[in-house]
Amino acid sequence: MAGRSFARLGPELAKLTAPAPTTPAWVIRLGGERGPPGTGFAKPRFGGALGRSLGFRQRCLIRRAGRVMIMGVLDGRAAVIAGGTSGIGASTAELFASEGARVVIAGRRAAQGQAHAAKLGPKTEFVRADVSAEADVAALITGAAERHGRLDCLVNCAGEGGSPGGIATLDLGRLQRTLAIHLGGVAAGMKYAAPVMAAQRFGSIVNVASIGGHIAGWTFLDYSAAKAAIIQLTRCVAAELGEHGVRVNSVSPGPILTGLFGKGAGLEPAQADQDAALLEPVFTARLEAYQPIRRAGVPADVAAAVLWLASDASSFITGQDLAIDGGILAGRPPAASAADFTAIAHALLPAASRP
Fold first, then answer.
1. How much is the pTM?
2. N or C: which end of the chain has fewer CB within 10 A?
3. Which helix (H) or strand (E) holds 79?
């Protein structure tokens, strides 16, 4: 990350690193953002220059007992990530933990969740929860808030891939299952997080939707319907909670290299997660005519956007859906359209040349 490069800080960083045993602990916080309760901030005369050098407003330097340390953008914050055992959720949990958050990972696969939490360190824990069961979600959210004394971030990322087929063959029971996991799980998470965040007058909720919620044909019918509902529910809750200091946004990933596709093809979940990267050549080739950015999306792409929405850097952003799709929703690459026009011209030219 650009914030970790100190080569250009020059003499100001040298001053910071000099021993100062009599100086009390202090923190540089750029941009005037509010931090966790009990944290004191001071903006030194060189704060603007330091921010430009670091290239990231949220990075902080903290000096204690003559030592200078980097603070993460979520330092001291408590976050719950539903669906954090694999794919986008696991990548988000890893990024949040690296940025100083106390992370609660939730999911149905206990062994995988516990292993991931252990890998991320002592400030990360796993709680088994099925988001389609309201009691599980209630216990997850209230338990995390009680253990950590607050809840600053909620990421609703749990989901399944939906079912193939059109409206004439739609399994209504399966539709209800898809809605229960995606829409019901998001609604339950916000239901129990909202009172906690409103009471502390601070919090950020990020719901993971999909470009399938915007345009048809990219995801299965039931999945698309659920994701479209999540985008609208996000707007409704954002409008309600804004006055209480709580922000609510969603992200809409395009095709991302996760195990979702392998699971849909019938692979065992762990194997599907492990083999997700093998799809990269297929993604790159198949998306060439639709995606302006010519590479496959990866979970880290989405995690970075979720981090931004969870942080103070997006403190004036709420009720928005951010597409992380390599430009698919923006439109087709001109080169792809040019090839179509060329084919049309070739089809018409013989007819135009006949007497």
1. 0.77
2. C
3. strand 78-82
Q: Which residue has the tokens 């603007």?
A: 48
In angstroms, the Cα distances linking 289 to 184, 223, 295, 334 are 35, 23, 12, 9
Q: Which CATH number is correct for 78-330, 3.40.190.170, 3.30.360.10, 3.40.50.720, 3.30.450.20?
A: 3.40.50.720
Orientation angle between helical segments 299-310 and 87-98, nearest 10 degrees: 50
Structure tokens at 233: 């529910």
Whether the CB-CB separation of 313 and 58 falls below 8 Å is answered with yes
Which segments of the chain belong to CATH 3.40.50.720? 78-330
Task: Identify whether 223 is a catalytic site residue.
Answer: yes
Residue 348's pLDDT is: 78
pLDDT tens, position by position, 114-145: 999 999 999 999 999 999 999 999 999 999 99
**Catalytic residue chosen out of the listed positions 202, 220, 223, 261:** 223
DSSP 145: H
